[in-house]
């Protein structure tokens, strides 16, 4: 009865991924995404101050 059979086995270590060198297209794409994210956050901040847009909802007829 030698060896270690029970318990959780350790996963094999995988080599670390090397950082990709970004070309100009990748950098431009990342920059564009950051700008769009900033615009969305600004719009959300403005919308919070105004309140909900659709307040009508479903109207239920009442008894007369």
TrEMBL record:
Compositional bias per record (Basic and acidic residues), positions renumbered to this chain: 18-44
Name of the protein described by the UniProt record: Translation machinery-associated protein 7-like
Species of the source: Neomonachus schauinslandi
Region Disordered, annotated ranges: 1-44
PANTHER family, alphabetized: TRANSLATION MACHINERY-ASSOCIATED PROTEIN 7
Gene designation per UniProt: LOC110585458
Protein family: Belongs to the TMA7 family.
A Pfam family matched in the record: TMA7
InterPro entries on file: TMA7
Residue ranges with Basic residues bias: 1-17
């Amino acid at each position: 009865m030698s060896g270690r059979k029970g318990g959780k086995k350790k996963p094999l270590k995988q080599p670390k991924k090397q950082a990709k060198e970004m070309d100009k297209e990748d950098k431009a794409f990342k920059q564009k995404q950051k700008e769009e994210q900033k615009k969305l956050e600004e719009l959300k901040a403005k919308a919070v101050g105004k309140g909900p847009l659709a307040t009508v909802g479903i109207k239920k007829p009442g008894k007369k």
